[in-house]
Amino acid sequence: MSRVKRSDASAAAAFLAPDALGLLLFIALPALLALMVGFFEVDGFGNVEWAGLENFRLMAGDGLLWKSFGITLGYAALFVPLAFFAGLGLALLVSEHFPGVAVVRAALFLPNAVSLVVIGLLWQFLLTDKTGAVAKLTGLDEVSWLGDPTLALLTLVLISVWFLMGYQMLIFLGGLQDIPREYYDAATVDGGGPWQRFRHVTWPMLRPTSFFVLVTSLINAVTGLQAFDLVYVLTSGGPANSTTTVVYYAYQQAFLFGRFGYASAICALLVVALGAITGALFALTRGGRFDA
């Protein structure tokens, strides 16, 4: 290796070292310790006993655990496409310059700048049965948005989309601004209308951005803050466990029932499942490059 290349490699290592150290100390090491705890019986009071694979065997017969996996899957199946297209649609709306566009962008992003606990308390107040602002504005006094098992999960999904769509709008907006204007001019000269320009220019050029949004949305839906914070504040997993996601179920096992080893085993299974799905997405799309 030449002296210049060694110098460049040293500079790169120096710049990467702080982030690498942070990832090691605050992500990799805690994840490894959590995996190790899954092989023990830990009650949170200093009692630790080797359990081997017992915590993992218990998961096979835990009906509530598999129900929570199903709820998480349903939540992700609704949230990911809704948040994706909401963010893309908003980005297309505010991509052009018009008076007050900066204010509109800031207003759309504002929910994402607020704590999810505050968001949860706000929507809890708005969705109060009979007396909440939503009930008064819509006239649906008999609808219990958070108390009906058939509506509670959908309500959480819609609140999550409202919370995250401003952030995804900014990601898509960055992707749109990276598309050379010459491509649109060439499409216009060839007679392409708005739909043709979107289909043949915007959408193909947004594929890497779309892949990033898709993967981060999936991770947010499964292990993100809204999969726990909103559930904790708004429904506490109810009614009738209809909004108990996997991460909330793991929290219950650890901090309500003192089964820290079992909760760690659940989280390990969740991470493996999420890693497998994410890896499959990378393999199928070549990391967002959909070309041959």
Largest sheet: spatial strand order: 1-2
Q: Sketch the major β-sheet.
A: 2 strands, antiparallel
Proportion of residues in extended strands:
under 5%
β-strand number: 2
CATH fold descriptor: MetI-like fold
CATH architecture: Orthogonal Bundle
Give the overall shape, derived from the CA principal axes. Answer: globular
Word description of this protein:
This protein has 292 residues and is mainly alpha-helical. Helices cover 71% and strands 2% of the residues. The protein has helices spanning 3-37, 54-60, 63-94, 101-109, 116-126, 133-138, 152-177, 181-189, 194-205, 207-223, 229-235, 246-256, 260-285; strands at residues 40-42, 48-50. A two-stranded antiparallel sheet has the order 1-2. A hairpin with a 5-residue loop joins strand 1 (40-42) and strand 2. The longest helix has 35 residues, at 3-37. It is globular and about 70 Å long.
List the helices and strands and how they pair.
Blueprint (H helix, E strand, L loop, with lengths): L2 H35 L2 E3 L5 E3 L3 H7 L2 H32 L6 H9 L6 H11 L6 H6 L13 H26 L3 H9 L4 H12 L1 H17 L5 H7 L10 H11 L3 H26 L7
Helix pairs in contact: 1-13, 2-13, 3-7, 3-10, 4-7, 5-11, 7-10, 8-9, 10-13, 12-13
Structure summary:
With 292 residues, the protein is mostly helical.
